[in-house]
Amino acid sequence: MTQSLTIRRPDDWHLHLRDGAMLEGILPETTRHFARAIIMPNLVPPVVTGAHAAAYRERILKAMPKGAAFTPLMTLYLTEDTDPEDLAQAAASGLISAVKLYPAGATTNSASGVRNFDRVRGVLEKMAEIGLPLCVHGEVTTADVDIFDREAVFIDTVLDPIRRATPGLRVVMEHITTKNGVDYASAGGEDLAATITTHHLVINRNHILVGGIKPHYYCLPVAKREEHRLALRAAATSGEGRFFLGTDSAPHVDDLKEHACGCAGCFTATNTMSVLAEVFEQEGALDRLEAFASLNGPAFYRMAPNDETITLTKGDPVAYPAKIYTGAGPVTVFDPGYPLHWRVD
Ligand code: DOR
Ligand code: ZN
Q: Does the C-beta of 271 come closer than 6 Å to ligand 1?
């Protein structure tokens, strides 16, 4: 049995770093293991221009722990007013690596997102022309669609029409949570990929709701039925290039999670690599962890994989903090519900 595994240093292709005291408190949790991350732009106010992205990048670099080697890959938050030229310039200068599409109202700080997709057609065409990936939060937001169906309905009624109308648009389906998402990503061409979070490989909707409501398992898109979790596990451990890690690690202070109207987000940055190693071992796929966490993402984003490596070693259960105490307040670390045996050396 494998007791030690060395892989290229991983990247996180979907991460929330927030700002201010929260940023400072949680950034080391990511830089400890990851070399790069796609940084979500859903701040208040959102990161909508190249100038905003440059300023946010500076704040991240300023908050970096001493000695950390980490590159934040910036994104712009797509609005109906996004200027295609500003976006193209930010891409050409290397400042941004992607653009994020939030349907208005889909999740945390998405109020400035897109309501009328016709109004972003010009921007999407520009992105197709320059090859800039669109990271998509794939959920419809209308009250008549059940929250557990919102991803599948989005794929059929929004994503597929957008892709047909914009040939060449490179799309990352972010944090897919359904077999529908896996199937759609699998059938797409080389311009389509999907990220999968750590927590969606571990929990299904029962984990949130059975035996009392568990606010720290609540995120968006919400975890679905077991059959969907199994489809995600099969996709993540398949080694297929179109599936890669985007943790969607999304810290909220405990007060706002354990609340009458609790925020969406699981905070997994601290123990993601240990959880993933456990999951891949359970699936007999440890040899494909590197593809998922370290190779497939850079290949899609047309970047080189990291030269450095990390080594995971199996042993006694790993101790990790239950909470990260930030200047903004405590943030609960994702609890997979079983002991983790793989530590990152
Ligand atoms: O659970 C989530 N939390 N899903 C999202 O899409 C946003 C994120 C956040 O920013 O808290
Ligand atoms: Zn997210």
A: no
Residue that is written with structure tokens 């670099």 in the block = 61
Output the pTM of the full model: 0.98
| Domain of residue 232, residue span | 4-344
Q: CATH number for the domain including 208?
A: 3.20.20.140
Copy the structure tokens of residue 46. 């959102």
| 257, pLDDT greater than 60 | yes
Tens-place pLDDT, residues 184-194: 999 999 999 99
Ligand 1 centre and the CA of 251: distance in Å?
9
The number of residues making up the chain comes to: 345
Q: Pick from 282, 277, 287, 195: which is nearest to 235 by CA?
A: 195
Quick check: CB of 18 below 6 Å from ligand 1?
A: no
Rg (CA), the chain: 19
What is the distance in A from the centroid of ligand 2 to the CA of 220? 8
Our count of domains for the chain comes to 1
